[in-house]
Structures are given as C-alpha cells and as structure tokens.
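Entry for magnesium ion complex. Fields follow.
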Amino acid sequence: MIREWAANPRSYRPGEFLDARVTIGDRIVSVHLAPVFMGEEFVGTVSVFRDITAEVEAERSRVEFISMVSHELRTPITPILGYADLLLMGAAGEQTPVERDFLTAIKRNADRLTLLVSDLLDLSRIESGRLEFSLQETHVDEIVGNVLAGFQATARERRLLLRSEAEASLPPVMADPNRVVQILSNLVANACQYTLPGGEVVVCARVEGGEMHITVRDTGIGIPPEIQGKVFDRFFRADHPLVQSVPGTGLGLAIVKSLVEMHRGRVWVESEPGTGSTFTFTLPILPVDQMALRQRGPRAGRKRLEARAQTVPPTHPKPAAPARMGQESR
Ligand SMILES: Nc1ncnc2c1ncn2[C@@H]1O[C@H](COP(=O)(O)OP(=O)(O)OP(=O)(O)O)[C@@H](O)[C@H]1O
Ligand SMILES: [Mg+2]
C-alpha cells in the first residue's frame, strides 16, 4: 500500500490508511500509517504504533474463560436432565400434581440451560477461530423442507401458519448443511416466538444477483427502526412484553450473523412494528464448473465437492452488553 501511494499518489483516496497488527518479540503492536503528500509528491507517512499486548491477552483470556465455563457447565446438566426425565417417567413412584409441576419446571429450565451452554460454546468457538465447518454442495430446498417439518408442531401449538415459498429447482449452494440448518432454525424459531397466534411465518428461497437469498417473513410484533441495528448484538433483547415473556438469551441472532459471514454471506432485517419482520440471509451459489460436474451424476449419488475442514479466522466482537440471562420459566 505504501509503495502504491509512493508510486502513484493519485491512487490515494482521502481517509485511507494502513492498519496492521505486528508481533515484535513477545509484544503485539497495532500500526496505523497515513501518507503525507506535498502537492502530488509522497513525502512519507505519519505512523502510530501502539502496544496492545495487554488488550489481546485480556481478550484471549475472556474467550478461554467462556469456553472453559461452557464445557464445565455441560457436564452437570446431563444428569440433571436425565434424573428429571426418570422421575417424570415414574421410576421412583407416582408423584403428586405439585411434584410433577416442580419436576417439569426443572426439566424445562435444564433444557433451556443446555441450549444456552451450546450457544455459548458456539460463540466461543467462533471467537477463537476454532469453529470448524465443512463446505459442500448443499440443497437449500431440502433444508427448508426439513426445518419447516421440525417446526410444524410448535407452529400448531402457537396457532401459526408455517409454510414454504421456496422456488422449484434451485441451484445448490456451497455451504455447511448443518450450519445452514442452525441459521434457518434460529430465524424460524424467532419468527414463531415473536408472532401472535393467528399469524403467519413464510420461508422463501430464490436466486438473486448470483446469490441464494433465503428469507424468513413473519406477521409478528416487528422491530422498531431504532433497535433494528442492535438485534444482531450479543445478549440484546427488545423491551417488548412478548419478548420478555419468552425465555431467551439474545445469542441466537449473534450466532446467525457469524455463521452467515463465515459463508461469505450477509444477513439483514426489514421490519415494521405491529406488521412483521423479514430476515434475509445470502449464501454463495456453487460455481458453474462444479455445477456441470454435478449435472453428470444423479442427485442421489452426489459427491461432496469440497469437504474440507475450514478453520475460520477469529472475529473481533464488541464487548458484550450486560447479560440478561436466566429468565426462569416455570
Ligand atoms: N422475528 C422477530 N420478530 C420480532 N423481534 C425479533 C424477531 N427476531 C428477533 N427479534 C428481536 O431480536 C432479539 C434478539 O433475537 P435473538 O434470536 O438473538 O435472541 P432471543 O430470541 O431473545 O434469545 P435466544 O438466544 O434464545 O434466541 C429478540 O429478543 C427480539 O427482541
Ligand atoms: Mg432467538
């Protein structure tokens, strides 16, 4: 970049600077360089060097701490759930209705804790760059069908109409199918949770601008414009009474955003309070040469085109807002 500025001063765009992180011995240094020009002549740079070793180490300790705590929490939850199930099945004799209520509350909250711990583990893996995923030829229409089938019981319970508008014969995308299921499940779960009975949740998938666009649209409570930018932050939950009445930690959309970006996709929301919300994420479509390869064989016998374990570079998330965890849900 510096050579480019020196050789071709006109290539410089106002506000441009070089931002790098270098390791010098056991210190980590952040470097900011901005060019100085006299007329059209490059005369040098203004350079700011900052020792950020302590910040980097604090961040590393934070990530390691979350990872360790999540692992440690997982171990005792398993027997709590197991024994609650056994008692509910009557393994230790019949319970009174009150005892059954108490046991059901223990089980429901232990289930909730399991989900929270698995979200925390996912986040810590994402932040430390240890989340592995394998990209392969993935059929979005199949995933939409499976995820919707899994949520039909929830939708019926909440008196919601849940349906797909996925286009026919969609091209395959390059993605980790398990992670796409995780992304879509989080969005559909939110849409079902934050829509009042009698509403509708629709999942669409279509090709637009050379990418796959997958949309989850609901007729729910919506999100006010001033907080639409915050819903992807960790631990953010709206103040709406319906949101506060449902147990949740505000990690779902933060994970969705990281997972989508790992696929080089984008995710955004359009919403109007009282009318509904539409969450859209994009995924890259399989390159044309690989599509040709696919067309030679039947779909049933399709091969993994690229099954590599990919380690994702660490993201640099903002410090977490105060956690609003542990809404008891008796
Ligand atoms: N479809 C939606 N309609 C209205 N509000 C939504 C919708 N999806 C998300 N939100 C808002 O964004 C917030 C963050 O969503 P997110 O999925 O990250 O967390 P959560 O659902 O509260 O908890 P969990 O971590 O268990 O998913 C929600 O609490 C809610 O306020
Ligand atoms: Mg959620």
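NOTE: Confidence is low (pLDDT under 50) at residues 292-330.
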